[in-house]
Design a protein that fits this description.
The structure is a single chain. The protein has 136 residues and is mainly beta. The chain is built from 1 helix and 9 strands. A 4-stranded antiparallel β-sheet has the order 5-8-6-7, with no helix packed on it. The chain has a 3-stranded antiparallel β-sheet with strand order 3-2-4, with no helix packed on it. Strands 1-9 form a two-stranded parallel ribbon. Strand 6 and strand 7 form a beta hairpin. The longest helix is centred in the N-terminal third of the chain and has 13 residues. The protein starts with a helix and ends with a strand. About 10% of the residues have low confidence.
Length: 136
Amino acid sequence: MSELEERVAAIEKHLGISKQPQVIDWSRLDVNTPIMVWDYPENERLQFFERHHKNKGEFPFIAGRAWVHASLETGIWVFNAEGRNPWPEGVRVRVRLRGGATGIASATDFRWEGQNDENSVVASCAIRLDDGWVYE
């Protein structure tokens, strides 16, 4: 590592900047968050997967069943009936607001606790992970 690279690394460490990807915290999923789980190799996941909603608990999500891989299922709309964010940090979502507007941003950027005004989230769906985030 060159002297410049060492300096940059020291500054990043001091500022808390990490180049390591951040891992999705599966324990933060809401009960109705759509996920895909599978045991097969990565290249076969589109042929063999199961859709589940998260049960209480952590990875592997489904009581009595161990899964090797998991991801959020994209494009499935989740209605915000309970006024809480169903997505963990690090997920980019599309939302529909009560006033009819739509938007795309990180899930933590929206107001989920409903005030029943035009800016409260009515429904959302995952699009992808934010940059720098991974599933496992």
